[in-house]
Amino acid sequence: MLALLWLLSAFAGWAAAAFCSDRGLGQACRAHVAAAVHPSGVVAAVAALLAAAALIAPSAMRSEAAARTARMRLLAASAGCWAAALVVLFALGETVGG
Q1: DSSP structural state of residue 88
Q2: DSSP label at 61?
Q3: What is the DSSP letter of 12?
Q4: pLDDT digits (tens, 9 = 90+) for 11-27
Q5: Do 86 and 12 touch, CB atoms closer than 8 A?
Q6: For residue range 30-70, what is the model confidence (pLDDT) as tens digits?
Q7: Rounded distance, CA 33 to CA 40, Å?
């Protein structure tokens, strides 16, 4: 769900609508919000890699308990990174218009 929220905020215009429409700011505002997607995207990429690792890593482990622990830790780290990506996007988006 956090990944979907980030994707819609970053690429479906939710962030631009949230930060630019009420302030009467035009294309410059939208460009600033679009620029905020890039640093946020780095964090989102880490989150996606952690989620992929959570799916792959347990197959490399011998113990079922160790695999379960690794999967949960990787998924928790992924969720934390998705939340951080949203925070970065909205923190940088909030700087629009001073």
Answers
A1: H
A2: -
A3: S
A4: 888 888 877 776 566 77
A5: no
A6: 888 888 888 999 999 999 999 999 999 878 778 888 889 99
A7: 11
Q: How far apart are CA 86 and CA 15, in angstroms?
A: 10
Residues 6+ apart with CB under 8 A from 87: none
Q: How far is CA 36 from CA 19, 31, 73, 91, in A?
A: 12, 9, 28, 9
Tokens 């994707």: give the residue.
Answer: 7
Residues 60-90: pLDDT tens digits?
778 888 889 999 999 999 999 999 999 998 8
Both structure tokens of 81: 């990174």
Instruction: Kindly list the domain boundaries of the chain, sorted by start residue.
Output: 2-17+25-94
Provide the b/e sequence for 59-74 (b: ≥16 CB within 10 Å): eeeeeeeeeeebbeeb
**pLDDT, position 7:** 86
Structure tokens at 48: 């996606």
Cα–Cα distance, 67 to 17 (Å, whole number): 42
